[in-house]
Amino acid sequence: MDQFERSVGAGAVADLVKAYGGEYHLPVWEKQWVDAVFERLVQVTARKDVLTYSLTVLNSMEANAFALPGGFIFITRGLLRELQGDSHRLAAVLGHELAHVELKHGINTVLRHLGLTVLVEMGMFWLDVASSEVVRMASATVLQLIRLGWGRDAEFEADLLGQELAYAAGFDPAGAVMLMDYLISIESDDHSVSIFSTHPASAERRSRMAGRVGQFWSKPVKNTENLPMKVAGNGRNSDPNPRMDFMGRFVVELVSGANGSLLKVYDKQLNQELNWLPDKNVLEAEWSPDGRYLAVVVEDMGRQSILLLDRYGRIAHDWRQFQGARASTLRWDPSGKRLAYVLNDGGNIKLIVGYVPDRVDVPLALGATITDLVWSDDGDELYFFDGRDWFEIHGPSQEPVVIVNPVPRVVERRSFFSPTVERDGNTIRLTRPQLTIP
Amino acid sequence: MLRVCILLLALALVLAPPVGAREFVFSDPNGLFQTVIPEEWVYQTQQSSRSLSVFYGPGTSNLAYFEVLEPVSYDSPLEYAEYIVSLLAGPGGLTDFTVEEGPDEFKLEGLPAVSLTYTYQAGNGEKQREARLLALIGDGRAVSITISDSVSAFDSTRAVLDTILAEWRWLI
Fold first, then answer.
1. Partner residue facing A411 (CB), from B54, B60, B92
2. Residues A330 and A343 sit within 8 Å (Cβ to Cβ)
3. From the CA of B15, how many Å to the nearest CA of chain A?
4. Are residues A70 and A140 in the same domain?
5. What is the span of the domain harbouring residue B102?
6. Are the beta carbons of A402 and B71 separated by less than 8 Å?
């Protein structure tokens, strides 16, 4: 059966590649990265010993990915461009496509379509020696069906297994949700983004995957080793001046005002006091470890929001909004990509980890009281204090992508007077390369 | 005539080697090596990282850069260089990539290394020549040293490589 499946997929490869502009040869450095992510995912598949998985990049700017029966995986250069070098999102795409093969969606759909299901039930042997005419017919059918996808249920199944493969390979299972959010956001504007034309019910798929991210975290267990206090004592949580940003320029302070508390910022570089969010009642403020964002909880007419300000005090993201709920205890993880907070929703206390700047929220624990939060130095554990004991929750461990035998970079001079565009949230700055000697 | 004189003077100023050029010591951010760089070569903050240090020379297309590479599974720098050459010459590699010299084995301050010189078509359409040295330093790490310039100006820039290698010190 595996041989038959492989033959059917192999018979469709050439036509599929041709239909999508031929094979695209990535720059060797990017290829090494893509191959490293793909290989890590293949290593956690169940069928790696019976199939030879391969990855081909298609020369099409349409954002799409495919899996042919037998382990032939395809991704377009258009989709790779949209991934912007994010390994977790790439793992989400490739994990989804590998899952189609793992679950035999392609070959089963083809056999059903050709009315050959009964032959499968007769045994594998017959199909392994199937005539070349049957294989040719099946390959042609694959090409017709692949544009329609393997069916709604198959897409849901591949989403879930793809997420598990990504997790098992050391990637963030939330990558799939962030990827889907991003692609949905650009899909309406850009018709070349057609990955969901073959993937129906994207909102429902997004919802299902987002709902599962919390399952990749452990249940809270009581920490009896006083580890959180040690972490707090060693790490940035023990910073004598936690309200100062990483680069030591801005010090923030909350002071009482007529309409609540005001955010006061002291700029040590310019030696002046700044008044960010002058008309807002600011309840909390916490700098991200990299100094990129200042997260603040603001309240206005009973409605709370968590805003992410850039280093110039401008609102980069109106990140979360709560009606009738109160957010508190903001804590950035060491990477600055996740922000943990406590949400009191009418007496229900929830511990939530949100991805920045994405819309993905992972509810991790419910409790009567949560008064403090601490991240471990590697960001793999989150500790919370319920007023009496510390508890710990283990998150999905994320392994960096290691490229064995990297090709040295070939660097070219940039035009000396060309400004560099830097995007930071909603802020775009033009800068020049610095000409300083270390 | 005056314009020609001014042009020649400007060219002479640009092309002439600096008189009494001084150098500054450059220590790798990873603490693996130390060398000297001519003073007029400028460190590029935006193109550099912990593993890559880039310097622009006083010309218009010359640069020097140092990269720490890991993990490297090769025991021989020659085999590693041949692997790299095969990728740079293949699909997705450098346009019009041509090896002119090497790879030749040598010792860089006692550690096994190779040198090679190649040309390729740069992003601006000009032909660029690079002299690249690769040294294996143990623990699955390698260091790459590169001097790069347009083909026409490369010979004068190559002298910088001699300066760099003359003062090269491993810190491991």
1. B54
2. no
3. 18
4. yes
5. 23-170
6. yes
Q: Are residues A206 and A232 in the same domain?
A: no
Average pLDDT, chain B: 90
CATH number at residue A244: 2.120.10.30
In this structure, are A195 and A230 located in the same domain? no
pLDDT tens per residue across span B126-146: 999 999 999 999 999 999 999
B70 contact A CB<8A: yes
Put simply, whether B73 touches A (Cβ < 8 Å) is yes
What is the complex's ipTM, to 2 decimals? 0.87
Q: Which domain holds residue A324?
A: 221-394
Residues A61 and A115 in one domain: yes
- B151 in Cβ contact with B157 (< 8 Å): no
**How many residue contacts between A and B have a Cβ separation below 8 Å?**
78
Residue A63 to residue A121: CA distance in whole angstroms: 37
For the segment A391-412, the average pLDDT, to the nearest whole number, is: 94
- Chain A interface with B: residues with Cβ < 8 Å: 25-28, 30-31, 402, 404-414, 416, 420, 433-438
CATH value at residue B96: 3.40.1000.10
Phi, psi dihedrals of residue B52, rounded to the nearest 5°: -135, 125
Q: Is residue A31 part of a domain?
A: yes
**pTM of structure:** 0.84
Q: How many domains does chain A have?
A: 2
Is there a contact between B44 and A433 if contact means CB atoms under 8 Å apart? yes
CA dihedral A281, A283, A287, A288 (to 10 degrees): -110
Q: Are A139 and A12 in contact (CB under 8 A)?
A: yes
